[in-house]
Write a structure and sequence with these properties.
The chain is α+β, with helices and mostly antiparallel strands. Helix content is 18%, strand content 29%. It has two helices and eight strands. The longest helix is centred in the first third of the chain and has 23 residues, at 12-34. The two termini are 16 Å apart.
C-alpha cells in the first residue's frame, strides 16, 4: 500500500465549491423574497473585484483592485438574486452604487449574528488572495466572529 492519494478524475473540489456558493444564493434569495434581513442577521460578503461578471463602479475597483468586502445589514436596497449572481444597492461615502456580483466571484460569506462563515478557494496563487481593506460601505461597524464557531472551510490541496 502507498500513502499517495490518486488524482481524481471527478472534479470534487469544483462541485463542492459550486454547491457552497449556491448556499449563499439561497440565503440571499430568501432575504430578497422576505424584503429584508430577519432578526440580527447581517452578512459580510467578500468577492474578487476583477472576476468575470462583476460589475461595480470604477472608483471601487481602483480602491480595491483585487478583492473587497461588503456589508449587508441596515442600508442596502434593490437586492435581486438569480441562479448565477446577485445585485444590490449600497452607499459608499454617501454615494449610492449598484453592484452586480456573480457567485463564482465570492471568496467569503459570513453571518456574525450566528457565527456562520463560508470560505471559498481563491482562484489565484497557491497562498490565496492578498490581504485587503474592508470596503467600508456606509453602515454600522461590526466586530468579526470569534474563532471556533460555525466555520466551513474547504481546501482541496492535493498531496504530490
Amino acid at each position: 500500500m502507498t500513502d499517495q492519494t490518486p488524482d481524481s478524475l471527478i472534479p470534487y473540489d469544483e462541485i463542492v465549491q459550486e454547491a457552497l456558493r449556491a448556499v449563499v444564493g439561497r440565503v440571499l434569495g430568501s432575504v430578497a423574497e422576505n424584503g429584508g434581513l430577519p432578526g440580527e442577521h447581517h452578512f459580510y460578503i467578500t468577492f474578487k473585484t476583477e472576476a468575470p461578471g462583476v460589475d461595480i463602479p470604477k472608483r471601487l475597483i481602483e480602491r480595491f483592485p483585487d478583492e473587497m468586502t461588503i456589508v449587508l445589514q441596515n442600508r442596502f436596497w434593490d437586492l435581486t438574486v438569480d441562479d448565477e449572481k446577485f445585485s444590490v444597492g449600497l452607499s459608499f461615502n454617501q454615494v449610492p452604487s449598484k453592484l452586480i456580483i456573480p457567485y463564482s466571484a465570492i471568496t467569503g460569506f459570513q453571518d456574525p449574528a450566528v457565527h456562520f462563515e463560508l470560505r471559498f478557494q481563491a482562484q489565484d496563487g497557491p497562498d490565496g488572495p492578498e490581504p485587503h481593506e474592508s470596503a467600508e460601505n456606509d453602515g454600522p461597524t461590526i466586530m468579526p466572529v470569534e474563532d471556533g464557531s460555525n466555520v466551513v472551510s474547504v481546501d482541496f490541496k492535493r498531496k504530490k
